[in-house]
């Protein structure tokens, strides 16, 4: 009986934890860390306040789980980029592959979900400097490293000419979404770029870095 009960408890834990993260994400993004209490999170998640503490320990740990949880987007992109570029065998296939990957990269970074999390991380960076640094390492930093590594591998196979993959990846990122990201961070109510605008950014960026 005790074993069965433990299994039942475990089955209830995952939905509760997911509900808490969803509620906390929505509330943190809307109101920030300081103005969001655990009682409010518990109510929104339809769990007890004690359940929130049992799952995450305290509000700071829950906030970290919310922020770092979104880095899965960067990890998924990195895996896709590695697989896609690894499958390229001819020079004529490099351009289309890079264009698709660059479009997905810009769309993700300039999408409302990622922008909202970035605003939250920046707003709370003084209170959570280590968390902000870890978010940067796992998300934008990790993506830059993956892009640079992908370009280096293509260059090593003679499919592109890139003297400095890290610099090229950094230049590509800025050209793709640097100005748009800066505008979006300071004008949160402004509409994001549409598909046509992202296509323009991709074409321009790849052409400037010599990959278009």
From TrEMBL:
Name this protein carries in UniProt: TetR/AcrR family transcriptional regulator
Domain HTH tetR-type intervals: 14-74
PROSITE patterns: HTH_TETR_2
InterPro entries with a match to the protein in the record: Homeodomain-like_sf, HTH-type_TetR-like_transc_reg, HTH_TetR, Tet_transcr_reg_TetR-rel_C_sf, TetR_C_Proteobacteria
One Pfam family recorded for the sequence: TetR_N
Domain of life: Bacteria
UniProtKB keywords: DNA-binding
Portion annotated as DNA-binding: 37-56
């Amino acid at each position: 009986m005790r074993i069965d009960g433990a299994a039942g408890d475990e089955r209830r834990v995952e939905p509760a934890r997911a509900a808490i993260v969803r509620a906390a994400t929505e509330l943190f993004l809307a109101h920030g860390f300081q103005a969001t209490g655990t009682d409010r999170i518990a109510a929104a998640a339809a769990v007890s306040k004690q359940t929130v503490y049992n799952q995450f320990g305290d509000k700071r740990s829950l906030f970290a789980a919310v922020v770092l949880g979104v880095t899965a987007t960067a990890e998924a992109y990195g895996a896709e980029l590695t697989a896609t570029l690894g499958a390229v065998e001819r020079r004529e296939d490099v351009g289309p592959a890079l264009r698709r990957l660059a479009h997905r990269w810009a769309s993700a970074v300039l999408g409302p979900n990622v922008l909202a999390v970035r605003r939250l991380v920046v707003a709370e960076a003084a209170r959570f400097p280590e968390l902000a640094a870890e978010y940067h390492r796992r998300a934008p930093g990790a993506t830059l490293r993956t892009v640079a590594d992908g370009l280096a591998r293509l260059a090593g196979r003679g499919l592109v000419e890139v003297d400095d993959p890290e610099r090229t990846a950094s230049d590509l990122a800025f050209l793709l979404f640097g100005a748009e990201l800066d505008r979006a961070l300071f004008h949160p109510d402004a509409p994001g770029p549409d598909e046509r605008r992202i296509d323009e950014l991709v074409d321009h960026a790849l052409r400037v870095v010599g990959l278009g």
